[in-house]
Amino acid sequence: VLVEQLQALVDEIVDDVRRRETHRTIAGLARDRTHDERVAEVHFRAILELEPSDMAALDALIALYREVENTESLVDMLLLKVPMLSDLEQKVALTLEAGTLSSDVLSKPRKAIEIFEGLQQLDPSRDTALDHLEGLYAEVQDWESLVHVYRQRIDRADDLAIKKQVAGLMAGVQSGPQEAIDDAIGTWRQVL
Questions:
Q1: How deeply is 65 buried, as exposed, middle or buried, from its count of CB atoms within 10 A (0-12, 13-18, 19+)?
Q2: CA 8 from centre of chain
Q3: What count of other Cβ atoms lies within 10 Å of the Cβ of residue 141?
Q4: Cβ atoms within 10 A of the Cβ of 144, count?
Q5: Cα–Cα distance, 39 to 27 (Å, whole number)
Q6: Which residue has the higher pLDDT, 28 or 183?
Q7: Cα separation of 184 and 143, whole Å?
């Protein structure tokens, strides 16, 4: 009953801070007392509409989406949170989770590619994004991008054996699906 009464009043509140706190109260009551995830979601989202950087509302939505297994919305909230963080490790962890969920749970390789490309820009010193992009580019048959990943791997490798192994994979793509025989020969020459 209290939730319904507050819901009837919240839109009449003029002050954004009070309206935001009323939405927070409604969301908390709906989540914790009446176990109405839908009402909780509506009001946590209303908080974000009023204050997009409200970390408490964002974290509450992330927890809610994990609980109800709404993976698509969870991915959206994780990606919304990333630019709000200052810690690189946290940014990487959330982006990695969002990309993995998009790829493995949602079976959306193109969305996962977009996320992992963002991860590569966020932290180009690690191979994590390249590991995921390699498989995803092959899955969507984006051979040119796959060759680009292999080039990056060759440039990063210190061990000649690893360079040769990756060059072999790259030459296989260039001489097979991409049909760039001259490029494949050039790849072998570069490594050997």
A1: buried
A2: 36
A3: 10
A4: 11
A5: 7
A6: 28
A7: 13
What digits encode the pLDDT tens for the residues 126-182? 999 999 999 999 999 999 999 999 999 999 999 999 999 999 899 888 877 655 566
Q: What separation in angstroms does the CA of 30 have from each of 9, 25, 39, 104?
A: 16, 8, 6, 31
User: Both tokens of residue 174?
Assistant: 């260039």
Give the distance from CA 134 to its chain's centroid: 16
CA 78 – CA 32 distance, rounded (Å): 22
CA distance 98 to 77: 9
Task: Report whether 166 contacts 153 (CB < 8 A).
Answer: yes
SS3 123: coil
Cα(146)–Cα(111) distance, rounded to whole angstroms? 16
pLDDT at 80: 97
Q: Which residues of 119-140 are buried (b: 16+ CB within 10 A; e: fewer)?
A: bbebbeeeebbbebbbebbbee
Q: Residue 192: which pLDDT band, with cuts at 50, 70 and 90?
A: low
Q: Which of 131, 143, 94, 136 is nearest to 114 (CA)?
A: 136
Give the number of C-alpha atoms closer than 13 A to the C-alpha of residue 96, restricted to the C-beta side.
Answer: 14
